[in-house]
UniProtKB/TrEMBL annotation, chains A, B:
<feature type="domain" description="Acyl-CoA dehydrogenase/oxidase C-terminal">
    <location>
        <begin position="283"/>
        <end position="438"/>
    </location>
</feature>
<dbReference type="InterPro" id="IPR046373">
    <property type="entry name" value="Acyl-CoA_Oxase/DH_mid-dom_sf"/>
</dbReference>
<feature type="domain" description="Acyl-CoA oxidase/dehydrogenase middle">
    <location>
        <begin position="162"/>
        <end position="271"/>
    </location>
</feature>
<dbReference type="GO" id="GO:0050660">
    <property type="term" value="F:flavin adenine dinucleotide binding"/>
</dbReference>
<dbReference type="InterPro" id="IPR052166">
    <property type="entry name" value="Diverse_Acyl-CoA_DH"/>
</dbReference>
<dbReference type="Pfam" id="PF12806">
    <property type="entry name" value="Acyl-CoA_dh_C"/>
</dbReference>
<dbReference type="InterPro" id="IPR009075">
    <property type="entry name" value="AcylCo_DH/oxidase_C"/>
</dbReference>
<keyword id="KW-0274">FAD</keyword>
<feature type="domain" description="Acetyl-CoA dehydrogenase-like C-terminal">
    <location>
        <begin position="455"/>
        <end position="569"/>
    </location>
</feature>
<dbReference type="Pfam" id="PF02770">
    <property type="entry name" value="Acyl-CoA_dh_M"/>
</dbReference>
<dbReference type="InterPro" id="IPR037069">
    <property type="entry name" value="AcylCoA_DH/ox_N_sf"/>
</dbReference>
<keyword id="KW-0285">Flavoprotein</keyword>
<dbReference type="Pfam" id="PF00441">
    <property type="entry name" value="Acyl-CoA_dh_1"/>
</dbReference>
<dbReference type="InterPro" id="IPR013786">
    <property type="entry name" value="AcylCoA_DH/ox_N"/>
</dbReference>
<keyword id="KW-0560">Oxidoreductase</keyword>
<dbReference type="Pfam" id="PF02771">
    <property type="entry name" value="Acyl-CoA_dh_N"/>
</dbReference>
<protein>
    <recommendedName>
        <fullName>3-methylmercaptopropionyl-CoA dehydrogenase</fullName>
        <ecNumber>1.3.99.41</ecNumber>
    </recommendedName>
</protein>
Length: 571, 571
């Protein structure tokens, strides 16, 4: 049974308007949007997601996508939901103004990303890939491609995919073999096989635009020889509508552990007609635009899947009665059992940390041009992607645990989140790819300057907390201060290692350390914001408990990981 | 595809003969078995498991058990495998001599438990439940029941089940409603519904003996009113062979996340004929014998599933080539990538820790009567069950990660271990049940005396390590010493809390702390044993790296958890 989905509107209202000590949306958009506008958009998206997308989550898992006679079909309801999604304007909302979209700021898009994924992660992947391709084409495509393809993606009429992986080229894109050969008419003939193509074929929209990484004749070996091509499923006719079928076919779809409602395709290109995007040899740079967007999107997906699992566990625990609960009146639900309460708080406090960091990352991108926050934004992309997706796997496991034996029964529905979540630390670059990007390009290369910028920002929050007369604020300040010290010593160890195996052997622990610390910072900000109120209501009190719990149960991991990082590679 | 299974014979040879500084099997059995005998038994079991059980693991998952016309069927090959298992004497080997079995010591049975589960966990559950019932009947059953039922279980002709759970009585056994009413002929009429009955029906043996917890007329409320009954699927005829069908039917089987090859049944008893085991009202005590055996068995299952997942990940990483590996010659496999190497060592070092603690637990039970090690054995049962099963979930997730995108594809086979593993922290008592047993009955009640016995034993190993001139030994000693200090402070905090919500709110973190510490101790013992050799060969060197890795990556968790425990319940 699909569980109900309750959009986290009040959390977003708090994050947009209060948590960062100001109206973050107004600041990030120069007044174009306010926290209230943003919250209204989130509430509207939440209503749509809860009523249209969430009810399809279970059938997506049980029936899943299937391939018949070369065409992928989604379960009943998916095509209608996609059309409703388009008509409600949610695809256009995501797109930048330069591409003809509404140009919503990153802070709001973080919330939308969570909501689409929380209500139906398999469905959301279709949107996520289109959104990524919109950003990539907007950055590099010719006017002709913009008119023919980008406009259709922005309107939502067509959907987009991202074609990187091949059987022998996964993490190592330099090994890509798909070839693109120039033709006399300016188009290219694309031949090769691509695997793991998310929403690579489907029947929810009349055309699909594949963005394909391929090698050109006489190109240099490795990643520098790669170029980017738009390859449509159906070639547009003179009116720009889907015409002749292009020479790209769906060889098979994968039988996966989870996200069954998202078709994962093997695509065969046999001299398919493609069009160059950007410069020859500029493929990887073009793809990175899409990947950065998709990686941040994974952070929002992690938050969404985690929150859905948490909501279901919390609802079950509030209903289920079993045994006598220590120090509670007879008939208390299992949510009051000390260890069930621990699991629920553990989940909830991590969801809040991920959610807040997602909004903050969106804000950093919003202010990159005006406030120079671009470096910190780039710094947080691999952290959010790596840390939130790894934690989401652990968190969905906790959601099963709350259900006891019922958690292992598929009909309960909670196991789906655990199965779905497991792909997140893998796709869009494994956690190791994220951590290598983080330490190699964003820590060691600049001598830890951006990391230090982060630590300094957290210290400002510590100073604010020190000025408050409250026990949780004092504990949070103490814990953050000690965590910063551990993070600094880990960073120093990493800088001492330099670009060596000692550094890369502990890059994932270092990434997890920074993610955990950043999560603690988000809670520290929440504590300060809540204590700025004249009096604390129940919601405020819950935020204090959540922050205190995170500080006692999750933040101490920073010290553990600092010890691991200091040891370097164990050889 | 089912992966090959390589029985961990050399590890067991090391654990039996060397790791504990003496021939542990000889000591534990008063010379009845030696380390060499034990290793030979393990090697034989391993050969059987690899050739007969492991190849059925995949079909067990893909086809699974199915219910047709009231009868559960296992996939082709299961019945033949079970018969071969019986004929090779492996059921009888497990049983105590008092019940007509071979009476193998606990240290060896730990290894057998791992091997059956590592090769085919779904199959092994059939054996595990029979073994548990054998112990329960041996402890409490009348001569008549021994002759009619126990003998058939020990020979392996019939299999056994454990019937506790009901829809409204899971963790809270006191809520059991199944009724047993005495009849004139000395038998009892058993009526009620039991759920989650592992191997509750099947077609691999001609009869099934259900051990049922039920309430008798006028019995006191709660757990004290429960008695234990033997209820056969077929009533034995005059010759003791399966005769008339008893009034117990399989209402349904569950569609589960994993262990599909193990039928999980809903059983309906409608005035079924049963026979009392032990005293009226002595049900829970009788069931605890079986549960203790089953809980230790879960530790061995965690080790088995973990090792199988590790083996498959290691084999994949040794074959798969992808990209240039830092500081390694071209063409190096991904196993050499720093982070893949980290994942593999992380898995391997945990598997060794679990395996060693399993053997040690078996040894403690072996010496309980002679050396008074019973309290420590009882102390370790919830620790091994809770810690090893929780770690196994994380470990099988790592095994997926090593496979990258292929890990998410069901055909790869690694996802099965991740799905199978998820039930382990739930059944035979959730981790919270284990941790409440640990802190409530085995730490707080005796003022931490057994915990202190453990810390003292680890200190002796630290002293041995201090006397060795070796860098790994020195680091291991330092790390263990600091870990003991953290464990002592956590224990002191717990004793300070007493039987309050502050204690029960951190009971799982405390259990995980002790499990992690015990694992570090096992590695410390291994370091000492290896350095006692005149020269270290490659296997010795690998043990040192494994211990050093555990010390750098896993043992620091003790400090993190000590901070969590000290905070008590966050309210």
């Amino acid at each position: 049974m699909a569980s109900d989905y309750i959009p986290p509107v009040s959390d977003y209202a708090f994050l947009f308007g209060e948590a960062f000590g100001l109206d973050l949306v107004t600041r990030g958009t120069g007044g174009a949007f306010s926290a209230e506008d943003a919250t209204e958009i989130i509430a509207g998206a939440g209503e749509f997601a809860a009523s249209v997308l969430a009810p399809l989550e279970t059938v997506g898992d049980r029936v899943g996508a299937r391939l018949e006679d070369g065409q992928v079909h989604l379960p009943d309801g998916f095509a209608e939901a996609y059309q409703a999604f388009v008509e409600a304007g949610w695809v256009t909302a995501e797109a930048p103004e330069s591409a003809g979209g509404d140009g919503l700021p990153g802070s709001i898009r973080a919330g939308l990303g969570e909501i689409w994924n929380g209500s139906n992660a398999a469905f959301a992947l279709c949107w996520l890939l289109s959104a990524g391709q919109i950003h990539a084409l907007d950055a590099a495509a010719s006017d002709e491609i913009r008119e023919t393809y980008l406009s259709k993606l922005v309107s939502g009429e067509w959907t987009g995919t991202m074609n990187l992986t091949e059987p022998e080229a996964g993490t190592d894109l330099g090994a890509i073999r798909t070839m693109a050969t120039p033709r006399d008419d300016g188009s290219w003939g694309v031949s090769g096989q691509k695997i793991f193509i998310t929403w690579g074929d489907h029947d929810v929209a009349p055309n699909i635009v594949h963005l394909v990484l391929a090698r050109t004749p006489d190109a240099p070996a490795g990643a520098k020889g790669l170029s980017l091509f738009v390859v449509p499923k159906f070639l547009p006719d003179a009116a720009g509508e889907p015409g002749e079928r292009n020479a790209v076919t769906t060889a098979s779809i994968e039988h996966k552990l989870g996200i069954h409602g998202s078709p994962t395709c093997v695509l065969a290109y046999e001299d398919a007609t493609g069009y160059l995007v950007g410069e020859v040899g500029g493929g990887l740079a073009g793809m990175f635009v899409m990947m950065n967007s998709a990686r941040a999107g994974m952070g929002f997906q992690a938050t969404g899947i985690s929150d859905r699992a948490y909501q279901q566990a919390a609802a079950y625990a509030a209903e289920r009665r079993q045994g006598v609960v220590l120090d509670r009146a007879p008939g208390a639900p299992i949510a009051e059992h000390p260890d069930v309460r621990r699991l629920l708080l553990s989940m909830q406090s991590r969801v809040f940390a991920m959610r807040a960091l997602g909004v903050y990352l969106g804000d950093l991108f919003d202010r990159a041009d005006t406030d120079g926050t671009g470096a910190l934004a780039e710094f947080f992309v691999p952290i959010l992607k790596g840390w939130a997706t790894e934690d989401a796997v652990a968190l969905t496991s906790d959601a099963i645990q709350v259900h006891g034996g019922m958690g292992f029964i598929e009909e309960t529905g909670i196991a789906q989140h655990y199965r779905d979540a497991r792909i997140m630390p893998i796709y869009e670059g494994t956690t190791a790819i994220q951590s290598n990007d983080l330490i190699g390009r964003k820590v060691i290369r600049n001598g830890g300057a951006t990391a230090e910028e982060l630590f300094g920002a957290i210290e400002q929050t510590v100073a604010v907390l020190r000025g408050l007369d409250d026990a949780v604020a004092a504990r949070t300040a103490d814990r953050l201060e000690r965590a910063i010290a551990s993070a600094r010593s880990a960073t120093a160890a990493l800088l001492g290692f330099g670009q060596t195996r000692d550094a890369y052997g502990v890059s994932v622990p270092y990434l997890m350390l920074l993610g955990t610390l950043a999560g603690g910072w988000m809670h520290g900000l929440a504590v300060a914001a809540v204590l700025a109120h004249d009096a604390q209501d129940a919601a405020d009190a819950a935020r204090l408990v959540s922050a205190d719990f995170y500080g006692a149960h999750h933040l101490p991991r920073v010290h553990m990981l600092a010890e691991t990082v200091a040891a370097g590679e164990v050889a």
